[in-house]
Design brief:
By secondary structure, the chain is of the alpha+beta class. Helix content is 45%, strand content 25%. The chain has a 3-stranded antiparallel sheet, covered by helices on one side.
């Protein structure tokens, strides 16, 4: 049984904790963006050839195609794996 944190640490401390977590996340993301941290994108689609070609030609970076098999249905599918910085653009 979960006990709400407001009962354990008090309502004011709970609000301060939530605010601190939010501020920490925002500051960390700004820092990672400033130093050029990379992000990865995995694309699951029936149109991987076209999407991969568009990403490669428009953004000028390589794209990796992986062979994947779904666990539940055991269905094979190609997956695009793309690494980009947040400054390149949003996919």
């Amino acid at each position: 049984m979960a006990i709400p944190s407001a009962y354990v640490i008090g309502f004011q401390n709970m609000l301060l904790t939530v605010a601190e977590l939010y501020v920490s996340a925002v500051v960390l993301n700004k820092f990672l963006d400033a130093v050029g941290a990379k992000r990865s994108v995995m694309v699951f689609s029936e149109h991987n050839q076209e999407i991969g070609q568009a990403l490669s030609s428009q953004l000028g970076q390589g794209v990796t195609m992986l062979n994947a098999t779904g666990f539940y249905r055991q269905r094979r599918q190609d997956v695009l794996y793309y690494i980009c910085s947040s400054k390149i653009g949003h996919v």
